[in-house]
Design brief:
Blueprint lengths: L6 H17 L4 H23 L3 H7 L4 H11 L3 H13 L2 H4 L2 E4 L16 E4 L9 E2 H19 L16
Antiparallel strand pairs: 1-2, 2-3
Helix pairs in contact: 1-2, 1-7, 2-5, 2-7
Length: 169
């Protein structure tokens, strides 16, 4: 699509979407764009190299795209949350918006959560835990999953890096 022609290019788009979000962590637009891209990395990697790689599919113990999606959910527990944000934004699913919050102002949100003194978006990730998880944390975990998947299984010698340093870099 235009100059994004493989999963490595799409991963670069994901990093750029994340950089945009991290510059404006209160932006629902940037959060949704990043979630949509993170969610659709599965489609791009499947078509780009997983679908046609018999040895890789055997290694992952999958046979088809449904198996690949289950493998992703097993190895990236927060992927389903990001998928929910993506689908909720695409289809305007009100139930997907439950538990989402925009934390604004000094002293809002949980102690030690989110960027100090800045507004940010958060999700209720557990009905029994009163803390909300900053969306940036969820996005980053899924981005690291895709980075590691491409490094381990992808055909690319190098991967791009975004402006935002990931937690484990």
């Amino acid at each position: 699509m235009f100059d994004i022609v493989n999963s490595r290019d799409f991963y670069q788009k994901l990093l750029e979407d994340f950089d945009d979000y991290m510059e404006q962590p209160e932006s629902a637009r940037h959060a949704m764009n990043c979630a949509i891209t993170a969610h659709h990395m599965a489609d791009w990697t499947w078509v780009d190299f997983v679908k046609g790689d018999v040895a890789l599919k055997a290694n992952l113990k999958i046979k088809n795209k449904d198996g690949f999606m289950k493998w992703i959910e097993l190895h990236s527990p927060w992927y389903a949350v990001i998928q929910s944000i993506s689908n909720g934004s695409k289809h305007f699913l009100r139930e997907n918006a439950k538990g989402t919050q925009k934390i604004e102002g000094w002293g809002m949100g949980g102690w030690g959560q989110g960027p100090f003194g800045r507004s940010y978006l958060a999700l209720e990730t557990s009905p029994t835990d009163p803390k909300n998880t900053p969306v940036s944390h969820l996005l980053e975990v899924v981005i690291r999953f895709w980075r590691d998947f491409l490094k381990t299984h992808g055909p690319y010698e190098t991967l791009p890096r975004g402006k935002t340093k990931l937690f484990d870099e």
